[in-house]
Amino acid sequence: MASTIVFFSVKKTAQTTTRRCLKGLAHSPSVSLLPGGRWSSRGTGVRFMSQGTAAGRSRRGALALSAAAAVTAATAVAGFLANADHFQRAEMATSVPQTAEEKKKKDYEDEGDIVERCKDFMSVPVTDIKVLQERKQEMSTKMEMLIMETQAEFCKALQEVDGGTFKVDRWDRKEGGGGISCVMQDGKVFEKAGVNVSVVFGNLTEEAAKQMRSRGKVLKGKDGKLPFCAMGVSSVIHPKNPHIPTVHFNYRYFEIEEADGTKQWWFGGGTDLTPVYIDKEDAHHFHKTLKEACDQHHPQYYPDFKKWCDRYFFVRHRGETRGIGGIFFDDLDSPNQEQVFKFVKSCARTVVPCYLPIVYKHLSDSFTAEEKDWQQVRRGRYVEFNLVYDRGVKFGLATPGSRIESILMSLPLTARWEYMHEPPKGSREAEMLEVLRNPKEWV
What we know:
Elements: H1 14-23, E1 40-42, E2 45-47, H2 73-78, H3 100-111, H4 114-118, H5 129-134, H6 139-162, E3 167-172, E4 177-185, E5 190-203, H7 206-214, E6 227-239, E7 246-257, E8 263-274, H8 280-295, H9 301-312, E9 314-315, E10 320-321, E11 325-332, H10 337-348, H11 351-361, H12 369-388, H13 391-397, H14 404-407, H15 428-437
Antiparallel strand pairs: 1-2, 3-4, 4-5, 5-6, 6-7, 7-8, 8-11, 9-10
């Protein structure tokens, strides 16, 4: 039976949203790593490893999940890379002092009525509301509420600036769970804007389990079964105006239950920007907003996750990054579940303030046919990365039962490939290529 989709009115005006976005986040005090805590670079990026201190704590390997991996069960499982190394936990910074408004919002999120919170969503959640109420304190419920709130906040902010409306498409996965795809296509500002939520569960496929075990992950199933739960929010926005950048973000949670009832869990995600032309003020604002969110929790998060982002979103056959980066992290499971969730929540709340001010700034910028052609060429590079390198997309396309429309939501409506294209020396296009070939520090 078809699900009923409910749309809710936007509460804020575009001007209010703009002021809120420009205000940004508060600065936080710096802290230091505890003695013995360290960061490790291997594979595609920097991983923060942890070692349990309690006797009998199950061993956790570091697993890498791609940015698109939360779309379906297959893509949620696909990109995890196992690692047997263990490092001592490092302590996260204490949160910056909260304002009365922030405290009120936090109390509402932690203790507010599930039904009331759901009224602001783009759709009813994937999980039944009664189940969410019964499991209110479980991390799976907290994360599902966060990704639903993130989807709604971002969609409504985009609708304000565009004037269009997102099509809300609920889908079910016969193996367990489902998702909500919100897509706005051929709008006034955005050629294609997609914000997906997925909440899937079931048992790991044998192929996925073998992939994890082959890379060192210790998985103790029962009768050959490994129950898992994966959820996340993922978005890619392709504007019409070449002076408004493309933006992508993805935040996700993965949980596996072993034979003895213990659970292994980890978080991943990130936000990155792909401009067609370099605007140093935009780049500074975008990275500064992300850095301030990261600094609330650990001083190493931004520099290390920024480097990881540059490494991951690299189009190797072109020798250039996909964009000017942002942050990207995975396998985050320390110092404890609640602290990591708070960090992910801080990151998720940057998606509007780091991007919308840039959109409003360039909303009325004029552009030439040549600039539009350059945008189409850069979109071609975007497609190349997603189809050639992104682990989650590749695995999802090759896995039976995957929802192809949601996986390919990240691709632009239009793109262009020119044979032997090379911009003139000294041009703004050449300046863009120089930055992509040599990633820079923006804050």
